[in-house]
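Exam revision sheet. Question 4 asks you to relate a sequence to its structure. Input first:
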Amino acid sequence: MSKSKTVTLRGATLHYDDAGPSSGLPVLLIHGHPFDRTLWAPQAMALAEAGYRAITPDLRGYGRSSVTPGKVLLADFADDLAALLDHLGIERAVVGGVSMGGQISMEFQLRHPHRVSALVLSDTSAPAETAEGKEFRNRLADRLLAEGMDGYAEEVIDKMLASYNVAAMPDVAARVLGMMRATDPRGAAAALRGRAERPDYRDTLAAVTAPVLIVVGADDVFTPVADAEAIRRLVPHATLTVVEKAGHLPGAEQPESFDTALLDFLAARVAAGA
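Answer key, structure tokens:
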């Protein structure tokens, strides 16, 4: 059973879903840009049915959570999530995310390592932003504030999903487009400006002793399989799963494959030692 709730913390009102038994092992899943918590709906359902507690928040500036204009650093998102866990009375959780959500998970590991029982990193990358990337994100932030989300959403849908899935999976494409178009441009721009300043997480990952699951779509063009393999080299004990017939959002494109990888990892590497 999923309970949809709101809480105000650190100057933001966050909307989140809390599914599954309250006594279950907590799994916090962090969406990417420019999406919302419903990106994780298939995973939240699968986790809850398996007896886990799935917590899926809308980050500040996204979904139904309040907007903080200007710049929101990945550290701000990570501290919001730590405060949310405090509010829920959860000391440690499996922390995972896709794309920007994966980078927020790494930032959470950097800032709150004692609270991470395992990491799930989907379609993400660990190095600091490049000079070119910083310029691109700040330009895109300006554009979204000026034009809104529609044009950008149309431009990137065939990179968010594997291009062949846009036509083959019209329902998935419509769901992903709907999330992107509904995002407040001010929230998206603030996150882009903050993400442009992200640090290098490679040393953080190299020091992780908790179990780590790395997932990547076989045809991801934003963060390709090579990026996932680079994380695996940093974390030799990690489990790497490449999801076939998927792009940047394998949890949406191939939910059954993603869910199997996640549930198998939790059963073998996390729950057994909990």
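Marking note for examiners. The CA atoms of residues 93 and 161 lie 28 Å apart.
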